[in-house]
Design brief:
50% of the residues lie in helices and 21% in strands. By secondary structure, the chain is α+β, with helices and mostly antiparallel strands. The chain has an eight-stranded mixed barrel, surrounded by four helices. It has a six-stranded antiparallel beta sheet with strand order 3-2-1-6-5-4, with helices on both faces. Strands 11-12-10-15-16 form a five-stranded mixed beta sheet, with helices on both faces. It is elongated, with a radius of gyration of 54 Å.
């Protein structure tokens, strides 16, 4: 390797590694230095603030003290006597003048008569001519006038009478002969006097204490200050601080200046070497650890990003999860411009026949299918839209800036068309569909939870309408949901009572009319308000809300209780797909048979064509067990599905029932004889008996008999249509009009409560 290449790599390494370390070290040292300097400055400021507060308190106390010292000699009955009538000059000089200087250090004292004329004056401890007051009258007389006003307003009489404890007083800060001073003015009064003083008749005493060098020296000694002084000039030296001394109007009259204590600066100077050494060591440690810190930070950031992604995305598909969905939905709604025509559309998608894929191909295939569905959805939406997996086989799409329902319809059509196409999975080919519920809003006041509720209602309408389609929410759907909820609540309540649910028995009649060869047990619901509710109305509801297995067992139990009393007669019971998919269904059926004592050969289970052709392992296993146990199997609704000849042979069905809808359309068929003959021929080819359900007229019966049907069920054989059938079936204890009342079973109650 050349020296130039090594030099280039070394330079890049130094630039990318050492430069950040050096910058970090410099930044650290600078930060520490700034912090220490800031801390020292802060300590100095706090010390100065503490000293300022102390000085302020001392000055305030001293100002108050001047007034109190004055009150000691002024508010005194002897002082009142000394100034009224023949004035006692000796008393006045000793107590109201020189005494204040000697005992308290007051620098000025004046006594004013009621007309505010000076009758006594003291300066610097000596009595002087009263005329000297004239040099200070302009400063002090306004204060005397103010005190006189206070007295006239009742302050003096209130104090003398005992109504108030406040001695009338005026104190302020003034400048006398260019020097600041505390002054105090108080009337000559007594707490007790025989002769009340009329307002304006009292003498006024004035005392003053200069804020001079001696006072500053006292403050220095008391507070351990440095360079303390009083000044009237606001400009002080850079190393000094000054406290403004304000008069009663808030105007600065003087300033108290001093050199503040600076503990922070002193400490900084004393610790500077040690601090420098500590900073150097810290910088070295930072240099050593910076690389590890950078690596750790990178790892933590990657972990945080991964955790955030996992918290907001589905692990299986990589789509957004419910948390992201709720956040993005609220954001999209808030961003809608109410002045525009752009809307937010919420699509809730639920896969059709997904459970069959799980049951037939396994859960791994189901997970793979979910992943492939997510992959198909991505190219169908815009980059600004949100796709989320809400759980299981349920997805959601948030589409923004939707101008009209035509855009929504086009999007839904693309989704339905693409999901309908076969999915190639590792376990085999899978076919599913998708039902879509859509809700649209352009209102910023809408809430995401309300939009989701409307989309769910529309999804239910799509499923109820035949699946593999989409529905856009309309207001009338709310009423449909409420009606469904009410009916579901009534059904649950009915299952707790003994007088609403029952079982009826419909006869199965031989084609020649010779006898009733058996009956079919059907659920019946007599609602206390609605009357008789059609099974077509409440059985699909029971299937969707998890109650169908309980209803099926309820009918089977009553059928077996009736069948045991009529041995040799066929008892047919319809079995629902959910029951057949239950791997424990065979055990439940035989438990009921053994409890009743009925012969298994007298029981016939009617199953749907869809179950036979679904290929579901649990259902197929139950069918094989039933056949081995001697229970008959009838294929219900024949002609509506895709049952093949191979399946009829594989499961050895005993009887097929041509669906009533197929029979009802015979009259409209262009060639009913050929179609019916083909169905019967298919059944005979595998040795299966053929029955016709929904035979309502003699013409239908005659036609089907001619085609080879062996037995019938329908309105033609009801009590209203054929009373003879009732008489011929009299040996059947239950009869087709018997309604078996529901009896409470602990097992049923336990299962039902779990479902609730």
């Amino acid at each position: 390797m050349s020296k130039d290449v090594k030099a280039g790599r070394g330079w890049r390494f130094s630039y990318s590694v050492f430069l950040p370390i050096i910058l970090a070290a410099i930044g650290t040292v600078a930060t520490i230095a700034i912090f220490i300097t800031w801390a020292a400055s802060r300590n100095d400021n706090e010390a100065a603030n503490r000293q300022t507060n102390l000085v302020s308190h001392i000055l305030s106390d001293q100002r108050t003290q001047v007034s109190r010292e004055q009150e000691d000699v002024v508010v005194w009955k002897d002082s009142v006597r000394a100034v009224n009538g023949a004035r006692d000059a000796s008393f006045i000089e000793e107590n109201l003048g020189i005494g204040l200087y000697e005992f308290y250090g007051h620098d000025r004292a004046y006594l004013l008569d009621p007309k505010l004329q000076v009758v006594y004056a003291m300066r610097d401890g000596g009595t002087v001519s009263p005329e000297i007051f004239e040099t200070e009258r302009t400063t002090l007389e306004p204060l005397a006038q103010r005190l006189r006003e206070i007295n006239w307003q009742g302050a003096l009489s209130a104090y003398v009478s005992g109504a108030s404890d406040n001695i009338p007083n005026i104190s302020d800060v003034v400048v006398i002969e260019g020097q600041p001073a505390f002054v105090s003015l108080t009337p000559i009064i007594s707490e007790k006097t025989d002769v009340p003083q009329a307002p304006g008749s009292e003498y006024i005493h004035i005392t003053a204490e200069f804020l001079d060098a001696s006072f500053a020296a006292e403050m220095t000694s008391l507070l351990l200050l440095e360079g303390a002084r009083f000044t009237t000039d606001p400009a002080v030296a850079d190393n000094e601080v000054a406290l403004a001394i304000r008069n009663n109007s808030g105007v600065p009259i003087a300033y108290f200046a001093w050199v503040p204590d600076q503990p922070g600066a002193k400490l900084l100077a004393e610790t500077a070497p040690a601090t420098a050494a500590a900073i150097t060591i810290a910088a070295l440690i930072i240099i050593v650890l910076i690389q590890q810190l950078r690596r750790s930070t990178a790892a933590l950031e990657a972990g945080r990003a991964e955790a955030h992604h996992m918290a907001h995305h589905d692990m299986l598909t990589g789509l957004g999860n419910r948390m992201m969905f709720e956040t993005n939905l609220e954001t999209a709604i808030q961003q809608v411009d109410p002045r525009g025509d752009d809307n937010v559309a919420l699509l809730i998608l639920d896969l059709d026949r997904f459970k069959q894929v799980n049951d037939t191909l396994g859960h791994e295939a189901g997970d793979e299918l979910i992943q492939k569905v997510a992959q198909r959805l991505h190219p169908l939406v815009r980059s600004t839209d949100t796709i989320a997996r809400l759980g299981g086989d349920e997805f959601a799409i948030i589409a923004t800036n939707i101008g009209s329902e035509d855009h929504i319809a086009a999007l839904c059509d693309r989704i339905v068309l693409n999901i309908r196409k076969p999915f190639e999975l590792r376990a085999g080919q899978a076919f599913v569909g998708v039902s879509i519920g859509v809700a649209v809003t352009g209102d910023r006041q809408s809430k995401g939870i309300e939009l989701a509720r409307m989309a769910d209602i529309a999804l239910y309408a799509a499923k109820d309408g035949g699946r593999n389609q989409y529905k856009i929410f309309e207001n009338h759907m709310n009423e449909t949901v409420r009606e469904r909820q009410t009916l579901e609540a009534d059904l649950r309540a009915a299952m707790r009572t003994d007088d609403e649910l029952g079982v009826t028995f419909e006869p199965l009649v031989r084609s020649d009319g010779s006898e009733i060869i058996g009956v079919e047990a059907n659920i019946r619901w007599i609602h206390p308000v609605r009357g008789e509710v059609s099974p077509d109305d409440f059985l699909p509801l029971a299937s969707s809300c998890g109650l169908i297995e309980i209803i099926g067992e309820f009918v089977l139990w009553h059928a077996c209780q009736t069948g045991v009393k009529n041995p040799g007669q066929l008892m047919a019971v319809h079995v629902y797909p959910t029951q057949m998919r239950n791997p424990f269904f065979f055990d439940k059926v035989f438990a009921i048979i053994e409890e009743s004592g009925m012969q298994p050969s007298d029981l016939e289970l009617e199953i749907s064509e869809k179950i036979l052709s679904s290929g579901e392992e649990a259902a197929n296993a139950n069918l094989r067990k039933f056949r081995r146990a001697g229970i008959r199997i009838a294929l219900n609704d024949f002609g509506t599905g895709f049952t093949s000849l191979r399946l009829l042979q594989q499961f050895q069905v005993d009887r097929i029932k041509i669906d009533r809808s197929f029979i009802a359309e015979l009259a409209q068929s262009p060639d009913p004889e050929a179609i019916t003959h083909a169905v019967v021929w298919l059944a005979r080819a595998v040795g299966v008996e053929v029955s016709a359900d929904g035979v309502d007229t003699q013409e239908q019966k005659q036609f089907l008999t001619r085609m080879g049907c062996m037995s019938f069920q329908g309105a033609l054989f009801s009590p209203e249509g054929q009373a003879d059938w009732l008489r011929s079936a009299a040996h059947l204890e239950a009869g087709h009009t018997h309604t078996a009342k529901r009896e409470e079973h602990l097992d049923e109650i336990e299962i039902w409560d779990t479902a609730v």
